[in-house]
Amino acid sequence: PYPGWSPQQPGGAAPGGPAGGWSSGGWDQSRAQHGWQQPSPGQQGGWDRPAGPTYSGPADPGGQGGPAQGGGQGGGYGQPRYGQPGYGAWSSVPGSGWRAPDVKPGVIPLRPLGVTEILDGAITTIRRNLAAMLGLSAIVAAATQIVSAALLAWVFGEAITEPDLGLSDAEALDTLARGVPAALIGWLVTVVATVFLTGVLTVVVGQAVLGRDLSIGEAWRESKGRLPRLLGLTFLYTIIYLSPAIVVLLLGIGAVALGGAAAAVLLGLAGLAAIPVTIWLYVRYALSTPALMLETTTADGASRPIRVFESLRRSATLVRTSWWRVFAILLLILIITFLIGQVVAVPFGVPSMLGTNAADDPVTWYVLNTLAGIISATITAPFAAAATALLYIDRRIRREGLDLELARAAGVDLHGRGGSGAPPGAP
């Protein structure tokens, strides 16, 4: 029910799309199918051809075509034809005096986005998909927090209920022996659940851009085939951007073994140098998750989701010419999510404001902290996922003219008419 945006297929029809296909002259063919004609020299009226790259179309928005073949996933964003020029907007014929309005079939206008539009689009997506965004986030947050809380209660239960009770050395070692694997299990559960949640939420955002709202079940069906790859991508991405810190850690182990002031100084300098490299790598590959969840490519004439290394390359390509802007927006998203978490935690800090501390009622304190974590994650996870996905879409619009493909997938034209694409008053 949610057709994908399949990749370029020269000389043939897009999988599941209308007959005729999109070849090197795909835009002219598409116009002819809708009754559009390229104006002859000197003829008034018509449209200028956009400067963006040529894309193959998705399955027919009206529902006659099926989803993209081969990948088994709907809602994919087709990969661009590399080497084509970047974003170029449609324009009216000189002298017509008509300015095209913004086209907004979903949560964002189909044009390059400003920072506030990215943030507003994330909030609008959450508001229009409360069940899929907040509901799913609440389920995942509650499950992970309860599992972590149960594991910690199992390990430190006596210390929580009776904080004044001292432990012998043997009891302390036993607690530590249970605590390490329990903490590791809780961390793994949280990571896997968060990765899957981010992937599902990204698919919801991709459909919200087209004006389609998904239920939790629909979002899961659209995304489940790509989630195992997303887990592998997250692991690889973490290793990549933490690699400078890993190198410094290994150097630190060697410095401790060798000793001496010179080794300590070199270790400190290496640590300082690792910080900007880590940030650079983090930003460079930050868009790999939405790329993996939303893009498709072609293999043996059939459409399929892109793979892990392909998504990393796609992120590097999209970020390459606008690293500082992507960095600034990601930093802003991080700051906003941090502030939201702090605001959510305020009501749960009322007991401490009234002079009550954890030692007075440790069980209540523990429960309040768990509830604060659930509510905070329920709000911040969908916002961060939605904003990052919209940043990815903005980069593709700016570099690759994705707005043209989005408009076609949404069943509208870039002049907001939703029909033949002719300007107001045109025959």
Automatic annotation (TrEMBL):
Chain intervals with Gly residues compositional bias: 13-24, 60-78
Alphabetical keyword list: Membrane, Transmembrane, Transmembrane helix
Transmembrane segments: 130-156, 184-210, 230-255, 261-283, 323-345, 365-393
Keyword Transmembrane appears in the UniProt entry: yes
Region (Disordered): 1-89
Superkingdom per UniProt: Bacteria
Comp. bias intervals (Low complexity): 1-12, 79-89
Name used for this protein in its record: Glycerophosphoryl diester phosphodiesterase membrane domain-containing protein
Organism: Jiangella rhizosphaerae
